[in-house]
Amino acid sequence: xxxxxxxxxxxxxxxxxxxxxxxxxxxxxxxxxxxxxxxxxxxxxxxxxxxxxxxxxxxxxxxxxxxxxxxxxxxxxxxxxxxxxxxxxxxxxxxxxxxxxxxxxxxxxxxxxxxxxxxxxxxxxxxxxxxxxxxxxxxxxxxxxxxxxxxxxxxxxxxxxxxxxxxxxxxxxxxxxxxxxxxxxxxxxxxxxxxxxxxxxxxxxxxxxxxxxxxxxxxxxxxxxxxxxxxxxxxxxxxxxxxxxxxxxxxxxxxxxxxxxxxxxxxxxxxxxxxxxxxxxxx
Length: 283
Known about the structure:
Layout: H1 7-13, H2 23-36, E1 39-40, H3 42-45, H4 54-62, H5 69-82, E2 86-95, E3 107-114, E4 117-121, E5 133-134, E6 138-142, E7 145-151, E8 159-162, E9 171-174, H6 185-193, H7 198-201, E10 204-208, E11 212-217, E12 220-225, E13 228-233, H8 237-246, H9 257-279
Antiparallel strand pairs: 1-10, 2-3, 2-9, 3-4, 4-5, 6-7, 7-8, 8-9, 10-11, 11-12, 12-13
Helix pairs in contact: 1-4, 4-5
């Protein structure tokens, strides 16, 4: 049964009556979350990574913030449980090599049982599925994107999720065993503070909708949908921050002038380094 602790989160999702647990209601909740709560690393880039306690994530969502997988799936799992869903948390591993396998711990994956069927549910991949996928082998089309699920050969009882070929990563695997949020504490510290972490080196914001994906990586805004892929550089701080609020629905009221300057300078330095690398002669 829902409690008042989740009212702000549900209001952020635009849902007044989530209804009883069902596959249809589950899909509606995932769609709403992906449309309104962005995958983003604003606070990590500013050197103040938020904790991954679900209660904190839920409050942040209600305040107009987002996060990465430990925040997004952690908070979403807490909401689903409060609504009466049977949720299991799993250790996952996102791989940038198409042949990469194994649940290396850099991702929190969820499965949900409802209406007698198990579903792969994930609001924390950034450019993953818009709706839950049946937890059975098969290929699934959602809008312009195609996904595939298969039983893992490296994680007994686990699953391999193959992302759309045009996505930011090709493969995520997760193990069968159930875990708790405490199992991700050490990896969260590494991902949110280590100098070589991609969450520190690159700014990213992603938002899914029924027709496609919005992606802000550094200072390049990308839209991917059935019409293809369009990119637009953002040349001013004003334009960049406006995109964060207008396209990604990220509330920036908590950022003062010093925060905005520091964030823009950091993103610009990384963008300039990326441009220089693109222009350098290839060996």
